[in-house]
Give the backbone structure.
Amino acid sequence: MALIVAALAVPGGASAACRTGGLTPAEVDICTPTAKAKLLASGELIPPASAPARVKAVIAAANKIRTKPYIWGGGHASFASAGYDCSGSVSFALHGGKFLESPLPSGPMMTWGEEGEGRWITVYANGGHAYMTVAGYRFDTSGDPGEETGPRWHEELRTNEGFVARHPTGF
């Protein structure tokens, strides 16, 4: 517990310290999740027990739409939709964790939250696509390059080249 208190006392918060190397070696574990989530064969992601409640809520929300189809613009007029596009699905999941009040397109996600990768949640966005990683897994509407499958959890990560990394404060 003392390590967490020390890290949070760093100017700019633990996230800023993680990005700038402002933590001592004994404190560096605050920069990465203590445990990775578990992906079931059904496609449902089970959060690690050590995850904060809001991270668990993001995972629960994403799990609710993980079998929905890809629909361009889906999830933008309302969080309730028959299907979701990339930023609509990320918005839905973030809303579940109380990080967003209304859906965001991928372009505005480039300036949402704080700069850089987060400890538990990172949103990757550019002008044409958005996805996120949560507790070590990627939540994304794209499968193979150019293939839109709908919102799904993926064990494999993807190249982040051309994307801006953002995260919710403290996560």
